[in-house]
Here is the input.
Amino acid sequence: MPSEKIAILLLIGIFISLMAVRMPIALSIGISSIITCWYLKIPMQMVLQSMVKGVNTYSLLAVPFFILMGEIMSAGGISKRLLHLASVMVGWMHGGLAMVDIIASLLFGAVSGSSAASVATIGPTMIPTMEKEGYDKTFATNITI
Here is the structure.
């Protein structure tokens, strides 16, 4: 059997074995990858350089700023105004609160440009409100996301 096929089986086998003993996913991925790299004789320095290069991007830097912008907009009251606008538009329909959540997330995502900021801002307001109205928490969370 070629070395690459053994490496793939080793990677998957160790990962599944570690998951079976209830090890966290991140550790399972890391340990199985390190063992596979060791088997293939890939230098660890090269692996670490690739990891740092993958994390060192401007797009990853933008995510916390979008979330911060969402929190600032929420504190300023724009999220309440967007919720009110969405409520006026579709809140009167059957299942309207779920539709209000979707419309508010759509509007907030358009304003902020970030779905993560939208969830971080609309979620703390809408999920508890939907729970009070009888929606399942899982459903409310999925609708908001």
The mean pLDDT is 83. The CA atoms of residues 67 and 116 lie 6 Å apart.
